[in-house]
Design a protein that fits this description.
Blueprint lengths: L10 H22 L18 E5 L15 E13 L7 E7 L3 E4 L12 E6 L3 E5 L15 E2 L8 E2 L4 E6 L6 E13 L7 E3 L2 E7 L2
Antiparallel strand pairs: 1-2, 2-10, 3-9, 3-12, 4-11, 5-8, 5-10, 6-10, 7-9
Amino acid sequence: MLPVFAIRPTPARKTAAKMLAVTALTAGVLLTAPSAFAADSITQTVTGGSRTASVADLALADVATSHSGTALNTGVMTLSVDDSTGTGAGWNVTEQVSSFAYTAGGNSGTAIPAANFSITSVGAVTSSAGQAIDATGTDVAPTGPQSGNIDTGVTGTLDGPVTVLRAGASFGQGTYSQAINVNLAVPANSRAGTYTGTLTTTITAAP
């Protein structure tokens, strides 16, 4: 009878087989693992504010009644403008006055017509906050803020609206002020007392 014997793998072969199996498993994991990342967004909302224009109350100096002619009384109004809308639309400001009604004195005075109140000139625009003033604009292509009429100046009676200040599109996004020189022609033989007019300041979007 022939001898029977079995061939067993040597320890070295067993070790090699295990290493091969581990290597193959690791490679499989590396090849199939997906990449992990996220694309998230951050949003910010900016809300617009208001567009305003105003002139402080003005008390003109007293004048004496006159028999010989009209008395001219001068004064300075200060216009304040702010554009916090965040639209960049530009804007323009107009001024208009009512007739000067006789409001106190007890002498039955007659109202002074609105046409007797005039703008004689306007001062330079100044900025206190926001966008800087751009002085390169023209009446046709305004930047500014700038005078309502660069070529001829701002003058005229205020019985109708007069544009005193304006800003072109993408300009005037800030706080500004302007001096407006005015005079009131007081008719001869005006009764003693107080006369009061209402000044309407209007700011509109777009130059």
